[in-house]
Structure formats: structure tokens, C-alpha cells
Design a protein that fits this description.
about 575 residues; eight-stranded mixed sheet; disordered N terminus; alpha+beta
């Protein structure tokens, strides 16, 4: 077992070592299948309890649901309205932990305006709900110093958000939640697990289970980079594959007591100057809620909630989905948004526990953990904010069948790598700027993405000063960030770099097309690509962008899915 800090890079060489260990025949205590937020959190929970742990992911960390969320860490106001107090309290507790202890560099407060449209009763109703929300956060012991909600007149609300139609509200309530770059957070969970000694490998798929009688004893796996098959032996296996849960369970021939249904949610990304506001916005719709979320120099608008039964790897947004969000946002904006204002679009699938209800918005956001077969634990459902609780419950369940006394979970006290010493690094940002020769705005950008690990990027720039220059085609990012994604953050394809380690694919006007050649040239030496492979990676990325663009003009899911699958990146 390693101590955090002894080997903190998810490097190509580290991946090879992890695969060699996983396939050595030695039996692990616990193997996790699925590198989303729950699987990565489960690996961290297990390894920090002293269990020998492996984590495999068939594509990239967070490549499914965990990179395509609303990027909110929140208690869920609408669950409060459903009187689901336990879920809200749990989520608010986790929100506080993430803000203050676990990932203060990645999770930060964000204000939201809740417009009121009726006089009298609505302010009392909404105000009492949000007051309860704040009170539950405080009583959880992790109020995290977020400002309390405040009541606003119409004039005060319009001062905060001049883009609102004055006729769209009679007043407002402002409250605070938190947000996160979900893909970076998930990757850093996996990286932190590796730093404590977990054997972590992306682009490794489980293709079958090993059994001795009724008991599941291991996994047949394939390295997707080399096509080499190998066997991983483990006392317990955790299936944390989200919307793929039923597919993974089917490999054991186990039907299961519950099923996971996929609900599609899409989000739009628009430039910050299209909406003049110093606060986010939450709107009620006939089906759910719609958020307008501050996101750096952009806004994220979402989301939808519709059933999806097509390609799980590449859910596609339709023109109808995009129109739905624009229509609802434009009802309250003085200057309407158009399709030309949309810089980026992304679609994700929520793993919902299938129930009797036909409406996906009524299916459970709560999670379940079960020993579906001897040696195999399944964890499913839940929401991003409560990933740590899901991970703890999964390891608790697995630990019952592992000989010896297993320590209790400690992940409520274990910061992610970039969170260790983050506040000190933030306080020293002027000093870091002077010593590195970079503008303090660049240092702040790095600190908000890498936390205390920023020094590793500054070391790269010191060794190779050209890496301190902006990336061609995506000037918000330094070239060093692209190199670092491959050398330290487990990126194995250009798509990994442009869609998850950075958000260039949704933040750049051209969706990263002009940045792709420069980025590929930077990662090629790290990943050992020759000219032909580098060209292929660029073509795959450009083909992916084109397929997504076409899918977003289609009228329905079936035609959008067909257009999206026409892209060349079947496994990315």
C-alpha cells in the first residue's frame, strides 16, 4: 500500500504497472468495475480502509454520466418539496464536506435567483422552503459558510440580473448551492485512490466473470489499447457501471432485484455576455426545474429529463431538446437566445432505479446496494453529490464477505490530492505568479483546476518555457495543461484531453476543431504516438464533433442517435 504523495501521477507507465499487477494472478480484496464518480469513489474508500484494490474503466474516467451532469453539488430543493428530508440532509452534508474538506479547489459556491411570479403566498411558500434548506445545511454541521438566502424585491432582482424581463417576476429569493467540474473531480478521485495504492487502469473492459460454483471470483478483462486479454482475481467485485448496470449484471446471468433506466438530460453552453447577470437562475417548468448556471466565461443551461433506450455511450441531443431549453429560458429573458448563441451542447444519461412510474422524473434518485450474487456487489442509482455515501455503502456491503476486521470508512476526512494545502497555495498566488513569470489570472485559473498540484504544472513550464504559452485555438488553457493531462491525469486519447481533462469541446466556438492539431502534437510524445497515429486521433476528434453537430439538427432521438453513431469514435 502506498501513502498519498508517493506516486500521484496517472501516467501511461503507471497504467502499465497497474495492469501488470491486476493480471498477475494475485487475488485482490476488492475490484471495482466502472470509473465514474461512484466507482472511483469506491476505489478510494476501499484502499483507504486497507483493502488491496483495483479499478478498471472500459473507456475514460467519467466518460459516461459523470462528465455530463449539471455540474452542481446540491441538496436538491425539489426533493425537499417532495418531503424527502433524509436525501436532502444527506446531500447537504456531502456538499459541505466537498466545499470545506474534500475538494475545496474544485467545488465552489454559486448563487441562484428563484423568481417569484405571484404576490403574497408564493414568497411565503418558497421562502420557508429555502429557509429550511439553509437550516438543514447548518444542522448537518457543514454549513460551509455559504451565505444565507435573502428575499429581494423585483427591482433588487433586476439589479442582480438585468437580462430578466421585468414582467417575468414580482420579486425573488436568492440562495446558494455549489458547483464542480465533474469530470476533473472524478479523475482526481481515481488519481487519489492510485496515490494510496489502488491499481487503476482506464481503457480496460470487463468482458466476462469468473465463477466457482455460485461465487463470482474474478473478471476476464481486455486492455483496449493492446487487445490483450487477462484475468483479474478478487475476493469481492463491485459493479459501479451506472447506466450500464444491467448489461454488466447480464454477464453473470443475474437478472437482479432492480433495474436501472436511463434518462437523458441535455445542456447548452452559451457565452457569458449573452446573459447579463451576477447570479445563476432556477426556473420551474411543467416537468422539472431549469438552471442557468455561471460557468467561467460561459453559462450552462439545462436540463431535460426524457427516457433514452438507444446508444448509452453517446446519447444525442436533438434540435427539439435544444429548442425546449431555449424556449423556457427565453420566456424570462429580455433579449432571447438563438441557436447561433449556443457554443456547446452535451447530453448525458442519469442512472435511475426503475420503478412503476412511466415518468423518468418520478423515478428514484436514491441509491441501492445489494449482494446480487456471492462475490458480486452492485451499487446503482443516486446522484452525483452523494457519491461518497454510495461508495461507503458499497464497500460496507463487500466488507461483510471479506475475512478479517475491515476498518470503517474514512473518506469524510481525506481530501483529494489537489485539495491538500489548497488554501495556502491560493493565498500564495501572487508569489507563484512572480516566481513563474505567469500572470496572476493564469495562476488563479490553474489553482481552480489543479489546486495544490498547480506546482507540478509550474515545474513543467520551468523545464520547458514554451509550455507557459496559451494553446492555439483555446487560449484560456496553457500548453502545459495539455501535456499534463497525458503525463499525470490518465488521458490516453485526444478526445479525453479536449472533452474531459479540459472543456474545450463545449467552451470553444468551434468546439475545439482548431485546437485539436496543437493539442495532439503536445500529447503525442507523452503517449508515444507516431505521425500516423497523431493524424488519426485528430481525425477521430473532428469526426466526433461533426457527428454531434449533425445529430443536434435532427428532430427526434432515433435520427439523432443514428447521426451521432456515424462518427468514427465508437469507443471514445
Amino acid at each position: 500500500m502506498g501513502l498519498a504523495g508517493t506516486n500521484t501521477a496517472l501516467s501511461p507507465q503507471g497504467r502499465e504497472r497497474a495492469i501488470a499487477t491486476l493480471g498477475s494472478g494475485e487475488e485482490l480484496d476488492l475490484l471495482v468495475i466502472g470509473g465514474g464518480v461512484v466507482g472511483s469513489g469506491t476505489a478510494l474508500d476501499a484502499v483507504t480502509r486497507g483493502l488491496s484494490t483495483g479499478l478498471i474503466e472500459q473507456r475514460d474516467f467519467a466518460s459516461g454520466t459523470s462528465s455530463r451532469s449539471s455540474k452542481l453539488i446540491h441538496g436538491g430543493l425539489r426533493y425537499l418539496e417532495m418531503l424527502d428530508f433524509a436525501l436532502v440532509r444527506e446531500a447537504l452534508h456531502e456538499r459541505g464536506l466537498l466545499l470545506t474538506t474534500l475538494a475545496p479547489h474544485l467545488v465552489r459556491p454559486v448563487p441562484f435567483l428563484y423568481p417569484l411570479t405571484h404576490h403574497g403566498w408564493e414568497r411565503a411558500y418558497v421562502g420557508s422552503g429555502i429557509a429550511l434548506y439553509d437550516a438543514m445545511a447548518m444542522s448537518s454541521g457543514h454549513g460551509a459558510g455559504l451565505p444565507h438566502h435573502r428575499h429581494l424585491t423585483r427591482r433588487q432582482a433586476l439589479r442582480l440580473m438585468p437580462s430578466l424581463k421585468s414582467s417575468a417576476l414580482t420579486g425573488a429569493v436568492q440562495y446558494y448551492d455549489a458547483q464542480v467540474d465533474d469530470a476533473r473531480h472524478t479523475m482526481e478521485l481515481a488519481r487519489t485512490a492510485a496515490s494510496y495504492g489502488a491499481h487503476v487502469a482506464n481503457r480496460v473492459a470487463a468482458i466476462g466473470f469468473l465463477r466457482q460454483g455460485e461465487r463470482v471470483t474474478g473478471v476476464r478483462a481486455v486492455d483496449k489499447l493492446t487487445d490483450r486479454e487477462f484475468v483479474i482475481n478478487a475476493k469481492q467485485i463491485v459493479n459501479a457501471t451506472g447506466v450500464w448496470t444491467d448489461d454488466t449484471q447480464a454477464m453473470v446471468g443475474e437478472r437482479g432485484q432492480f433495474h436501472v433506466r436511463a434518462s437523458k438530460g441535455i445542456h447548452l453552453v452559451v457565452p457569458r455576455d449573452r446573459i447579463h447577470s451576477s447570479t445563476g437562475l432556477i426556473l420551474r417548468t411543467e416537468k422539472s426545474v431549469l438552471f442557468v448556471i455561471p460557468w467561467g466565461r460561459h453559462w450552462i443551461l439545462g436540463t431535460t429529463d426524457t427516457d433514452w433506450s438507444l446508444d448509452k455511450a453517446h446519447p444525442a441531443a436533438t434540435r427539439a431538446d435544444i429548442d425546449y431549453i431555449l424556449d423556457h429560458v427565453n420566456r424570462v429573458l429580455a433579449t432571447p437566445l438563438t441557436h447561433e448563441d449556443v457554443e456547446g451542447v452535451y447530453a448525458g444519461l442519469r442512472p435511475l432505479l426503475a420503478g412503476e412510474s412511466e415518468s423518468t422524473s418520478k423515478l428514484s434518485r436514491e441509491h441501492v446496494v445489494a449482494h446480487s450474487a456471492p462475490g458480486l456487489v452492485v451499487v446503482a442509482g443516486g446522484k452525483y453529490t452523494t457519491y461518497r455515501v454510495m461508495a461507503k455503502d458499497a464497500v460496507d456491503e463487500a466488507a461483510q464477505a471479506i475475512p478479517g476486521r475491515i476498518a470503517e470508512s474514512t473518506t469524510d476526512t481525506i481530501p483529494l490530492l489537489g485539495g491538500v494545502g489548497y488554501q495556502a497555495a491560493w493565498n500564495q498566488r501572487q508569489t507563484l505568479a512572480r516566481s513563474s513569470g505567469l500572470h496572476v489570472a493564469r495562476i488563479e485559473h490553474l489553482l481552480r483546476r489543479y489546486g495544490a498540484l498547480t506546482q507540478e504544472l509550474l515545474d513543467l513550464v520551468a523545464e520547458r518555457p514554451e509550455l507557459g504559452q496559451p494553446l492555439d485555438g483555446a487560449e484560456d488553457h496553457l500548453r502545459a495543461e495539455i501535456v499534463y493531462a497525458a503525463s499525470h491525469e490518465g488521458a490516453l486519447h485526444l478526445t479525453d484531453v479536449l472533452t474531459r481533462r479540459t472543456r474545450i469541446s463545449i467552451e470553444a466556438w468551434d468546439r475545439g476543431v482548431s485546437a485539436a492539431p496543437a493539442a495532439a502534437a503536445l500529447v503525442a510524445p507523452v503517449l508515444g504516438w507516431d505521425d500516423a497515429r497523431t493524424k488519426e486521433e485528430i481525425e477521430i476528434y473532428l469526426g466526433r464533433v461533426e457527428a454531434e453537430r449533425i445529430s443536434q439538427t435532427m428532430p427526434d432521438d432515433a435520427s439523432a442517435d443514428e447521426a451521432r453513431r456515424s462518427g468514427p469514435d465508437g469507443t471514445l
